[in-house]
């Protein structure tokens, strides 16, 4: 991919690609570049400033308006220019607000105008922004701000064509309160000192959801020539230890799929309210502090976000119905990186655990949500953020690897990333390329893989190459022995975090409070610090009404905002009257500490037709 440094292709978009989650019409007017000038106000909890958009019009649509996506933005002024120097006031109107899509901003333009300047401010409850008071941070002294734009939250802090169909470059100037540092999803300068303002420049075109910003008391620690960790200072050294293998991961990934094209690969550890395990913002991935386990057992998330440098950031899903093109490819590559770095056994262990979680989740999903090319019309795209695009998507790619051989499939993937570099594609385009460059070359082999079954039908095909792990098989047998009363046969001294997790997952759901007590007394599970193990144990505690674990459960729900962890706990709690009262009381107290994305998920669990209603 040495020739992949092509930044901006000619004006071209597939006009048949309809993004149901955007008002924009980029096939008529397309944003090519955006210059941001922003200042965060922690008192008002708003970002204020301007966005200057550089646009390109399709030849047949020179009189078309510029249609942008917004969500509760206050638009103060809009100006347009043909030369970027002389601006005139432009007529604009904001449409009605949709609960999912926000509101369209329509700007009337003259045929030759190519620059649009918008002065605006965000709402105090913008869905992409989380404002944290000092007590909610690790250092307890300074406030913190971070953004989460995926999937359609960029529109809540930037007036933009908020669709992965488009790609744009950007610059930003960010003024910060004295003593606070700013970082963005670009190759940040590790030697920069905290000051009054920062400037950033992303010179490669990215989809809007990859624009990201964080402001806080942030320090830096190097982990390699191109890698390092940004974090609040109290957690900086432990984070640097946890993610020390980032440089090795980067080297292994390049050996597999070609040069890394995003400059640096740094990690920003966010406060605990971050709703996801990680976010693949180019140059600076965002991750949850729950990954800091002290044993490097959760670094698969780092491998996953690194894999996005190819699948997602370089080649992007054109709509959120094509999300599996981002996540299925990335999960497959994540396992390949893990295998390269830590060996086949560990990769198999993580694959088995992921597939077991997928099987459990599929039991709760409607058939329409078990499909890779999911129909999201009229629905929030967050609905599609299940394990299906991740794990089922990875299984599909592994089935291709098994059918055609690893060497041939690796060659195919490298060519795929080169062919579609810096482009956003649909499932149909990906299938067409797959047929032309792999399946049709060996029709006798292609018959082993049913595209219809994998991509457009629910469930997992019977031919899926389900992973197996001898080490986990041994753990499963020991779990059975413990359940049958042979606890003295357990040998747990050398168990990894993954093996502990598998042991808990292998036990029956209904153990009863007394057997839970014996487990806890023997292995001190309520006091575990590894978030994966603790969350599974707390889930078991709720199912079995094991009251001694409830103080730790309350603490966990109050200090962790990762949706993957807290959502199943609330779902389990509300199944009983007593559990629902506990959940209601706890959530009323801690809801404000969660990110809006997590709030939206838990509100649905806790509320009735009108959503969550706090106690009192």
Descriptive notes:
Helices cover about 35% and strands about 20% of the residues. It has a seven-stranded mixed β-sheet, with no helix packed on it. It has a five-stranded mixed β-sheet with strand order 15-16-17-19-18. Strand 4 (about 75-80) and strand 5 form a beta hairpin. Helix 14 (about 530-545) crosses helix 15. It folds into three domains: about 20-215, Sandwich (Immunoglobulin-like), CATH 2.60.40.1730; about 315-455, Neutral Protease Domain 2 (Neutral Protease, domain 2, Orthogonal Bundle); about 510-605, Serine Threonine Protein Phosphatase 5, Tetratricopeptide repeat (Alpha Horseshoe). It has helices spanning about 235-240, 245-255, 300-305, 325-340, 345-360, 385-405, 405-420, 425-440, 445, 450-455, 470-485, 495-505, 515-525, 530-545, 550-560, 565-575, 575-590, 595-605; strands at about 30-40, 45-55, 65-70, 75-80, 90, 90-95, 105, 115-120, 130, 145, 170-175, 180-185, 195-205, 215, 220, 225-230, 265-270, 280, 285, 315, 425. The model is unreliable at about 1-10 (pLDDT under 50). By secondary structure, the chain is an alpha+beta fold.
């Amino acid at each position: 991919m040495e020739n992949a440094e092509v930044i901006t292709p000619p004006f071209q978009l597939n006009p048949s690609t309809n993004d149901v989650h955007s008002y924009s019409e980029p096939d008529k007017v397309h944003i090519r570049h955006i210059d941001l000038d922003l200042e965060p106000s922690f008192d008002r909890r708003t970002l204020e400033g301007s966005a200057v958009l550089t646009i390109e019009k399709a030849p047949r649509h020179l009189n078309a308006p510029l249609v942008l996506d917004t969500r509760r933005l206050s638009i103060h002024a809009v100006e347009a220019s043909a030369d970027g120097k002389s601006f005139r006031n432009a007529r604009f109107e904001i449409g009605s607000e949709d609960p999912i899509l926000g509101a369209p901003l329509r700007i009337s333009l003259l045929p030759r105008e190519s620059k649009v300047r918008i002065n605006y401010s965000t709402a105090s409850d913008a869905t992409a922004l989380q404002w944290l008071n000092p007590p909610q941070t690790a250092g307890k002294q300074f406030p913190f701000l971070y953004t989460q734009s995926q999937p359609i939250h960029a529109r809540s802090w930037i007036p933009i064509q908020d669709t992965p169909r488009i790609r744009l470059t950007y610059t930003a100037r960010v003024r910060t309160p004295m003593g606070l540092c700013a970082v963005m999803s670009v190759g940040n300068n590790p030697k920069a000192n905290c000051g009054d303002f920062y400037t950033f420049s992303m010179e490669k075109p990215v989809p809007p959801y990859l624009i990201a910003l964080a402001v806080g008391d942030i320090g830096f620690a190097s982990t390699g020539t191109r890698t390092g960790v940004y974090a609040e200072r109290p957690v900086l050294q432990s984070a640097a230890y946890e993610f020390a293998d980032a440089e090795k991961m980067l080297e292994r990934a390049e050996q597999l799929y070609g040069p890394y094209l995003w400059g640096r690969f740094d990690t920003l550890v966010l406060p605990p309210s971050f709703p996801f395990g990680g976010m693949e913002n180019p140059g600076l991935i965002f991750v949850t502090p729950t990954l800091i386990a002290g044993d490097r057992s959760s670094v698969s998330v780092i491998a996953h976000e690194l894999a996005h440098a190819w699948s997602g950031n370089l080649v992007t899903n054109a709509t959120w119905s094509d999300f599996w093109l981002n996540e299925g490819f990335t999960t497959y590559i994540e396992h390949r990186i893990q295998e390269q770095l830590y060996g086949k056994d560990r990769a198999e262990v993580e694959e088995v655990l992921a597939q077991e979680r997928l099987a459990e989740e599929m039991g709760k999903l409607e058939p329409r949500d078990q499909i890779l090319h999911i129909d999201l019309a009229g629905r929030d795209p967050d609905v599609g953020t299940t394990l299906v695009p991740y794990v089922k998507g990875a299984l599909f790619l592994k089935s291709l690897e098994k059918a055609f051989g690893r060497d041939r499939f690796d060659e195919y993937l490298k060519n795929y990333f080169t062919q579609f570099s810096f482009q956003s594609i649909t499932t149909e385009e990906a299938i067409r390329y797959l047929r032309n460059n792999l399946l049709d070359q060996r029709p006798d082999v292609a018959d082993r893989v049913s595209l219809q079954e994998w991509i457009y039908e629910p469930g997992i095909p019977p031919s899926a190459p389900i992973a197996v792990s001898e080490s986990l098989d041994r753990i499963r047998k020991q779990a059975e022995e413990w359940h049958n009363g042979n606890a003295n046969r357990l040998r747990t001294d050398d168990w990894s975090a993954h093996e502990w997790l598998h042991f808990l997952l292998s036990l029956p759901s209904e153990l009863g409070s007394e057997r839970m007590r014996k487990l806890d007394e023997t292995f001190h599970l309520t006091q575990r610090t590894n978030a994966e193990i603790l969350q599974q144990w707390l889930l078991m505690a709720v199912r079995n009404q094991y009251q001694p674990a409830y103080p730790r459960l309350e603490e966990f729900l109050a200090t962790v905002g990762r949706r993957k962890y807290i959502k199943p706990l609330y779902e389990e709690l509300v199944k009983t009257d007593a559990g629902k009262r506990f959940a209601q009381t706890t959530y009323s107290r801690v809801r404000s500490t969660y990110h809006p994305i997590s709030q939206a998920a838990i509100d649905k669990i806790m509320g009735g037709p009108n959503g969550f209603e706090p106690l009192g």
